[in-house]
Amino acid sequence: MAVNAPAGAAFDLKGRMAPFTVLQVRTADVDAVLAQLDARLAQVPDFFAGMPLVVAPAEAVSLEGASLDALVTGLRERSLLPVAASGLPAETAAVAGLGLIRNLEAARSGSAEGGRREAPAKAAAGAARLVTQPVRSGQQVYARGGDLVVTAPVSAGAELMADGHIHVYDTLRGRALAGVQGDENARIFCRSLKAELIAIAGQYRLSDQIDAELRGAAAMASLRDGELELNAL
């Protein structure tokens, strides 16, 4: 039976649960979901690559059999990692046949059914990584287990990553991702905000989603109730 494509969004990417992001599917029209997903991926190439997903149909959406198979295949073709399913009616052997964990609690707790998964790491209390030279386009700087402090400009096309906080005492262009191991208490501070993308523990905001009054201003990014917010300093 043909399914009419929805007029609005075909899916939502919800906040992370354990180390997973929930893909809440809002229509059984898999082509519509994948088309909108392609548009989202085009905005932030490689940002979602390898992201573990829990596939969860919204209320009243039937997603099983061939539709579920097509969606999971489409996600994997786009370098996403569907690992579990939630909210499917009588989660059947078809779920296991697609390599998905059968219930969300198994995914969250890392039970034997899905293999052991570690809880998101908190930022280590060790020394911060200090960068005093400009970070050029194409460069990636990662502070593993702690904070990243940059005292020079960050160019468009550059990428900063830290398990803890990110401090930029100059202009922040490019991409900045703090709390990349799941630390929701991580923050991003900068003297001049001109970033292409900022993210904390998987929650992100693109440049066109940043309020005009904050562009070029000293700002701080943090999470409140699982939502990323920006405030002037």
From TrEMBL:
<comment type="function">
    <text>Cell division inhibitor that blocks the formation of polar Z ring septums. Rapidly oscillates between the poles of the cell to destabilize FtsZ filaments that have formed before they mature into polar Z rings. Prevents FtsZ polymerization.</text>
</comment>
<feature type="domain" description="Septum formation inhibitor MinC N-terminal">
    <location>
        <begin position="11"/>
        <end position="82"/>
    </location>
</feature>
<keyword id="KW-0132">Cell division</keyword>
<protein>
    <recommendedName>
        <fullName>Probable septum site-determining protein MinC</fullName>
    </recommendedName>
</protein>
<dbReference type="InterPro" id="IPR016098">
    <property type="entry name" value="CAP/MinC_C"/>
</dbReference>
<dbReference type="Pfam" id="PF03775">
    <property type="entry name" value="MinC_C"/>
</dbReference>
<dbReference type="Pfam" id="PF05209">
    <property type="entry name" value="MinC_N"/>
</dbReference>
<feature type="domain" description="Septum formation inhibitor MinC C-terminal">
    <location>
        <begin position="131"/>
        <end position="229"/>
    </location>
</feature>
<keyword id="KW-0131">Cell cycle</keyword>
<comment type="subunit">
    <text>Interacts with MinD and FtsZ.</text>
</comment>
<dbReference type="InterPro" id="IPR007874">
    <property type="entry name" value="MinC_N"/>
</dbReference>
<comment type="similarity">
    <text>Belongs to the MinC family.</text>
</comment>
<dbReference type="InterPro" id="IPR036145">
    <property type="entry name" value="MinC_C_sf"/>
</dbReference>
<dbReference type="InterPro" id="IPR013033">
    <property type="entry name" value="MinC"/>
</dbReference>
<dbReference type="InterPro" id="IPR005526">
    <property type="entry name" value="Septum_form_inhib_MinC_C"/>
</dbReference>
<keyword id="KW-0717">Septation</keyword>
